[in-house]
Amino acid sequence: MLVQAVAILTALAASGCCGRKKDQRTQKAPSTAREGKKSAEGRAKTRQPNLILVVMDTVRGDSVSAGGYSRATTPFLDTLVSEGVFFTNARSTSSWTHPAHASMFTGLVPSVHSARYAGKDLLKERQGTAAVIPMRKDIITLQELLKQAGYTTAGSVGAVLLNPGLGVTRGFESFAPAVVGKDPDAHTVNTRLLELLDHKPDDERPVFVFVNYFDAHGPYAAHVEHAPWLEEFENLDAADLLERENGIPLFARLCAGTQKLPDAEWKRIRALYDSEIAFVDYHMKKLFAELDSRGILDNAFVIITSDHGEYMGEHGGMADHGRTLYEELVHVPLVLWGEKHVPGGIKIDRPVSLRDVFFTFTELAGIEFRFKNPGCSLMAVVKSADCSGRPLVSEAFADPGVAPAAPRIFGQDYASVVQWPFKLIMKSSGETELYDLQKDQHELNKLTGPFRKKKNELVNVYKSWRLNNPAHKPDLTAIESQGPGPLTRERLRALGYIE
Hints:
Layout: E1 5-8, H1 40-45, E2 50-56, H2 75-83, E3 85-91, H3 97-106, H4 110-113, E4 116-117, H5 123-126, E5 132-133, H6 142-148, E6 152-157, E7 174-176, H7 186-198, E8 207-213, E9 244-245, E10 248-249, H8 250-256, H9 263-293, E11 300-305, H10 327-330, E12 331-337, E13 346-348, E14 352-353, H11 355-364, E15 368-371, H12 378-382, E16 392-396, H13 407-410, E17 414-419, E18 422-427, E19 432-436, H14 452-468, H15 476-482, H16 486-494
Parallel strand pairs: 2-8, 2-11, 3-13, 3-14, 6-7, 6-8
Antiparallel strand pairs: 1-15, 3-12, 4-5, 9-10, 11-12, 16-17, 17-18, 18-19
């Protein structure tokens, strides 16, 4: 067993497990197992809340107006914040879509669930081929557990990385994947989700709904109707930093310093990125109206978050993400909302992890877990539970596809550990960086000298955590057999994820 954990499913459906080997949790029927054919009347009396997860892909934690951003990028999210709980210090387990979503759906970190880039150890073996590793098949996902607990599960995504072939969204009863060749915009993601919900069985089962909006991912398009700040720009052409020259995308050339953009263009790029966020916020509002008209919000618990942020010139990164672990990439917005389940108007500054999404939903669904290294239910934190003693770990891995362009950035593995307010970043080169996030939220000043003791302390914290969370070494054969098909591969290449 790679992960020492046991799950006790208190709402196990009669169908049993999905037939795969289970590594981090085993299932057994509870002593008071409910019958899978429970009557509609009985279900209505004990019905769990509808669970909704909305991920605004690629939205930085400091780019939402609810968090104090100068542009009104998220007026609808601001309303939800005023009516719910806003975690101002939420942290992703990684810095790009594939591993971050996998952590939300498994409660595990990237080195354990294996949805990640190939990493430094596999640079030579993977160079020139796919760098994206599928999630392990032997891990049970949140959607599979919720289905066993009596939920109807439905998802609609804009990110091709979240198509079932890469494993993260495996197990949804109904699912609208991204269209290879063109990422569905937020309007299309909504339309396809609502079609799924309108065709679901007419029964009393609660629903788990997952939505991924991919619009804020590059290239950035202009949405003038939602972004009045665009009026100052004459050129509203989409900003595409994935354009390739000699096989190297523009963002990688910018990181390597072989190409530069004028300041005016960077200002325009940020304005376009912000307009994409406003576009997502507008369509999230429309989705909530549709869900409300169907009665789904009457008894709903909603989490709205992002999987990662985006570089806007910090730390050598240029309008891209992944591969490193600085705050502009791992600090994300996180909001809880639900009239019957969540108190209103609360802001919580204590750090939490996207891993906690998994533990929050399983708790609300009545699924009990015994994890050797558990996360925290976000509702427990709302009720004053103190989870601050646990280390918050994030990981990123070397990307063989672009490592040759900027090996200092893309050719290393990274791990970070946060014990507030200190954050330690460790690189596979042996270099470490220590920051005090309370005093230096942009990580501009590395702590040295008298802080050596603190650095060593956090190194030991990470080593202790690592002993209880051993990494899973990817199987190259499995990568080839489980990896994306040719059409998906073509789209991943266009997005800059693979060479």
